[in-house]
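Supplementary Methods, section 5.1.

A reviewer requested that the exact input to the structure prediction be made available. We therefore reproduce it here, unchanged from the version used in the analyses.
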Amino acid sequence: MLTIGFVAITVVVSYMSFNNPALNAQLCHHPYREAQHGEYYRMLTGGFVHGSWEHLLINMYVLYQFGSIVENLLTDIYGDVMGRLIYFIFYISAVIVSDIGTFIEHRENPGFRSVGASGVTTGLVFIYAIFSPWQMFLFPPVPAIVFAVLYVFWSQWASTNRSDNIDHLAHLFGGIYGVAFIILVYPKTLSIFWERLLQNAPF
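The structure derived from this sequence is encoded cell-by-cell as follows.
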C-alpha cells in the first residue's frame, strides 16, 4: 500500500532530521526563504519532517489509519493502478496546498517555520468524514462529521488567536482541500454524503 510507503519515508526522513538539525532546517516549511530565495521545494519536504517523536507518532498513526481507508476507497472506485495514482497525487498535492495559507501569511516573517504531515492527515480525516459522517471517533468521542465541522472553526479561530507554534492554517487548508479533492475526482461524493448524512442521522 502507498500509505505504508508514505509512513516509512516520513519516519526515516524525520528520524534523520532528529539527529541532524541542519537537515531539519533545510527541509522545513519556511515561507520567508520560499518567497525570498525561491526555495519552494520546502512546501513539499516540510511534510516529511517532524519536530519530535510525539509529533511524528501521532501523525503517522492518523496517516496509517485514515490513509489506508482513503486509499482503499479510491482503489475500490478506480481500480488498483488508477486508484493509487489518484491517492498519490492527493497526498503530494495536499502537502503543498496545506502550506499555502502560512506561505501567504508569513512570507515576510523570517522567524516562522513549520514541519509535519498534519495538513495531509487532516485532509484524510475529512474525506473519511464525508463517507462515514456518523461514525463515532474514539477520541474525541463525537461523530466524524461533528468533529470535522468543529475542527474547521477551531483551526480558523486558533490561526488568528493563538501563538502555540502549531500550524493551524495547515490543518484548515488541508481539511478543506481533502473535501474539494474527493468531490473533484469523484463527483458522486456529494450525493453519497447527503444520503448517508440523512439516512443514518441519530435523530
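The mean pLDDT is 90. These observations are discussed further in the main text.
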